[in-house]
Amino acid sequence: MLSSRSTIVKFPLKRRLCFLLKLVCFVSSVLIFCEFLIYYVVIFQCRWPDMKSGAHMSEKETSASVLKAIILADTHLLGEIKGHWLDKLRREWQMERSFQTALWLLQPDIVFILGDVFDEGKWSSPQAWADDVRRFRKMFKCPGSTELVVIVGNHDIGFHYEMTTYKVNRFEKVFNFTSGKLITRKGINFVLVNSVAMEGDGCAVCRTSEAKLVALSHKLNCSQQKLNHSNKGCSDVEKIPASEPILLQHYPLYWKSDAECTGEDSAPPEEKNIPFKEKYDVLSQEASQKLLWWFQPRLILSGHTHSACEVLHAGKVPEISVPSFSWRNRNNPSFIMGSITPTDFSLQKCFLPFESRVFTIYCAAGALLVILVLAHVQLLTPPFYFAQRLISKHKAV
């Protein structure tokens, strides 16, 4: 009798533990997929673009000479003033997993971040700045085979009226950034611009920045002089590869609005026809003309608007506006993958997981979990039991 009672007690307990284990496995599987595996599933589908020249690529421009670059913008790491801890935790985890997954799967040679790395760099105290930098270095840590280059944005040092030499120097010290800096990789020239300092009002930071850009413009122009038309003014100038530069900056050059922009990650319809403000949304027409005149770039890459757009300046110079990398600014963040040579480039967009789809998976999993629990405690009659009862009543009649 005792043995029988013991068996009756043990069986329901064992059944409950088994059900609980199944629930734990189900919840764990959903969490692992939504917070880890989904980034691999989505980014694995991205491919480096082939060069436009394809089979006609010269011997010098073999696959080994193609620079593989990832370009992203506007990470906006939240600060201590406006950043809620839960929002920080969620957004930073999303960006860290996306970035590290992209590095592991795509193995780029170089990564460019086009400004607004921080959300509150313009206000940060020294302590808050140090904490933000620490978190950034953890999230965007690169292996030795990948170089990380960061351009300054208005949220890093403030808009022009908030920008100070102290904030600029603080950013430059951490990221080794200087406006008017030239980076040459595999014979490709990249020009880094502090677009916040292109106000044109003669402020101390603006004067220094523009002087460096003018000097760099002279150096690049000398590099493209033909030998039989050599300029005496270039005789003492350092020799650099004769490759038309690619301009990297935070503010876009001047254009009227996003009205002509297309694509699923372009600005929302209600924002497209809003005119851009010079020196706030885009550079002034004067500053834009200066940069085009000084460098005659073959490509311009910028951020700031948080939306994608492609604009053709002077009928020949393409500018690509890179969308925000943060889910706080977009439901569908992305980054640009570029295959670049000294004479050519090809760009491809890689989307990250849509946040709405992740929430949909969580909601569906939560609903299924509730149904399973209710069915287990017999508060919800399973469909086949319900059908069986109907059949039994029909037979009884």
Automatic annotation (TrEMBL):
<dbReference type="GO" id="GO:0012505">
    <property type="term" value="C:endomembrane system"/>
</dbReference>
<keyword id="KW-0337">GPI-anchor biosynthesis</keyword>
<dbReference type="GO" id="GO:0008081">
    <property type="term" value="F:phosphoric diester hydrolase activity"/>
</dbReference>
<dbReference type="Pfam" id="PF00149">
    <property type="entry name" value="Metallophos"/>
</dbReference>
<protein>
    <recommendedName>
        <fullName>Metallophosphoesterase 1</fullName>
    </recommendedName>
</protein>
<feature type="transmembrane region" description="Helical">
    <location>
        <begin position="359"/>
        <end position="386"/>
    </location>
</feature>
<dbReference type="GO" id="GO:0006506">
    <property type="term" value="P:GPI anchor biosynthetic process"/>
</dbReference>
<keyword id="KW-0813">Transport</keyword>
<dbReference type="GO" id="GO:0046872">
    <property type="term" value="F:metal ion binding"/>
</dbReference>
<keyword id="KW-0378">Hydrolase</keyword>
<keyword id="KW-0479">Metal-binding</keyword>
<dbReference type="InterPro" id="IPR039541">
    <property type="entry name" value="MPP_MPPE1"/>
</dbReference>
<dbReference type="InterPro" id="IPR029052">
    <property type="entry name" value="Metallo-depent_PP-like"/>
</dbReference>
<keyword id="KW-0931">ER-Golgi transport</keyword>
<comment type="function">
    <text>Metallophosphoesterase that catalyzes the removal of a side-chain ethanolamine-phosphate (EtNP) from the second mannose of the GPI-anchor protein intermediate. Participates in the glycan remodeling steps of GPI-anchor maturation to allow an efficient transport of GPI-anchor proteins from the endoplasmic reticulum to the Golgi.</text>
</comment>
<dbReference type="InterPro" id="IPR004843">
    <property type="entry name" value="Calcineurin-like_PHP"/>
</dbReference>
<dbReference type="InterPro" id="IPR033308">
    <property type="entry name" value="PGAP5/Cdc1/Ted1"/>
</dbReference>
<dbReference type="GO" id="GO:0006888">
    <property type="term" value="P:endoplasmic reticulum to Golgi vesicle-mediated transport"/>
</dbReference>
<keyword id="KW-0812">Transmembrane</keyword>
<dbReference type="GO" id="GO:0033116">
    <property type="term" value="C:endoplasmic reticulum-Golgi intermediate compartment membrane"/>
</dbReference>
<feature type="transmembrane region" description="Helical">
    <location>
        <begin position="20"/>
        <end position="42"/>
    </location>
</feature>
<keyword id="KW-0472">Membrane</keyword>
<keyword id="KW-1133">Transmembrane helix</keyword>
<comment type="similarity">
    <text>Belongs to the metallophosphoesterase superfamily. MPPE1 family.</text>
</comment>
<feature type="domain" description="Calcineurin-like phosphoesterase">
    <location>
        <begin position="68"/>
        <end position="307"/>
    </location>
</feature>
<keyword id="KW-0464">Manganese</keyword>
